[in-house]
What we know:
This protein is α/β, with parallel strands linked by helices. 5'-O-[(S)-butoxy(hydroxy)phosphoryl]adenosine (WT7) binds at residues 272, 317-319, 394-397, 419-424, 445, 506-508, 520, 523, 614.
Amino acid sequence: MTAEGSSQIDNVMQESRLFPPTPEFVAKAKINSADAYQTLYDASIQDTEAFWGKLAEEELHWFRPFETVYEKTENGVGWFVEGQTNISYNCLDAQIEAGRGDKVAFIWEGEPGDHRQLTYRELHREVCRMANGLKKLGIEQGDRVSIYMPMTPELPVAMLACARIGAIHSVIFGGFSAEAIAERNNDAEAKLIITADGGWRRGKVLPLKNIVDQALSKSPSIESCLVLRRTENDIQMQAGRDVWMHDLLDEVDEDCPATPLDAETPLFILYTSGSTGKPKGIKHTTAGYSLYTKMSFKWVFDYQEDDIYWCTADCGWITGHSYMVYGPLANGATVLLYEGAPNHPAEDRFWDIVERHKVTILYTAPTAIRAFIKWGDEHVEKHDLSTLRLLGTVGEGINPEAWIWYHEKIGAERCPIVDTWWQTETGGIMMSPLPGAIPTKPGSCTKPLPGIIPTIVDEEGNPVDTNHGGMLCISKPWPGMLRGIWGDEARHQEQYWSKVPGMYLTGDNARLDNDGYYWIMGRIDDVINVSGHRLSTIEVESALVSHPKVAEAAAVGRPDEIKGQAIAVFVTAKDAEAGDELRQELKLHVRKEIGALAVPDDLRFTAALPKTRSGKIMRRLLRDIAAGKEATGDTTTLEDFSVLAQLRQDDE
Ligand code: WT7
């Protein structure tokens, strides 16, 4: 434990379980020992530029070779300077050239149970047609295109079509409001929005086009609106602006050669919510992002040619960009896409999908895993999950108990779990076990990927000792790094590159343990300071979740005159036993797991926690509630507003 007043973060979590990959997994793995990982990693940091340069030559198709691997200029950074490539070419044409024309690229399942499959050749054709359609609508290189669609194959097709002609896509998650869409259209000054009449969600039609209509009354830059027919609900088509996709694509050419693009040509903008203020348009570019998503996919998922890979994210998030579309396709993978909810028509939908499609790799989020635990094991046990060989998580820290459940119930103790730490800004996975090489520890994202150098520093920017928490930084540039915030270079510099000179500031806290494993401790802003001890939210939450009656927990600090901050926790119990008795039991449980220091001062039961639409707990809102304040700041990303109202009511 560190001294009072230290700017470091105390580490109170004890997790010593270690899970090596099985011999069967190791036997087939591409990187199959700790030594093999270390050799690769050492080479990558000895001469990082040579390392990335060689991979870029070997792994990407170049219309024109690059001359410089990396350079920093007045206008930012350049990776693979002078080179020309195209990510859509790498994902499609290069795969067909490599003999994968008849291999299935996407297996798609709609929520109502409809199916479609697209081979690489078919996907190539669809992308070319869409790209020609975009051109017909007047879209040119550099134009911004908003995409607000259900998870149908046309969504990745639209992304790849933009990439093919150098238009910049901005995918807006299908759960966002008209207000949020308009804000994003305006910030990007998008010319076109691609949408659908509707999408299926829990058996109901989400009226996407109606929502877009509202947004377009406040989006002056939008000239046309391209509409996919999906749910056949009644919609208004505004003459001169709205175009049916099937009409547009009816008479276009089936070939559209990929445009050779300079390496730093912007590929997409993806908006993430800042903790306050307006959303940030994170900008990624062509060549560096192509290489980083391709390599990270290959390494982390130990990708093998016959894998059926399923990532349960939505294309509206970075995970959907990097690991449903660009990373997997650049490796010639078969990717499963599912349109709907995990509990429709029943709570076993995911396991039904795994069984029917013989999924071998499953990549999902801790929030989903906690929901499955709450729904009960019977939904899992109905299905044959024996095709699975590898599991992954992303988006938040995974509480060790949820990890163990995933390992035992889904992975049958046979599948390694890759806990992947990264951010919209990083473009791809930064830390994760390479599954055939690194034994896992529940709750740790383990080690950095090749070429990535994490550094943990205190408030003054000095490196902290092993086993002390501090701010996680990345001390060398990597090809997938963000290239800016759209239209706000000052914010980009200020937020990521100024606080710790020469390093990228992630905004997360982390700790390195004695075995060289990294543990993410949550967002810097979420640290709870109790009597000079700085505690991480994830540790308190994990202690609570390790109690058999707890499904989910969120910990926040609230002002306290004596201690500085007191700990307030919000708990979702598994059964309806929430009450004083369980409250007492949970406080004792935290005392036993962590110590008296971390015992919550307030413990409230709640039916649900406020989450972002991507499933992250919004602790910022809970802090306000715990302090008895109105929740302030941006709530546009909140998934379910009734949760906030309910929490406030409980307060009264
Ligand atoms: C933030 C980034 C990464 C794609 C989806 C989310 C948290 C993400 C982990 C993990 C602990 C994690 C971090 C990070 N986070 N993965 N494996 N362990 N925390 O992207 O919305 O940009 O969020 O999510 O706090 O900074 P994002």
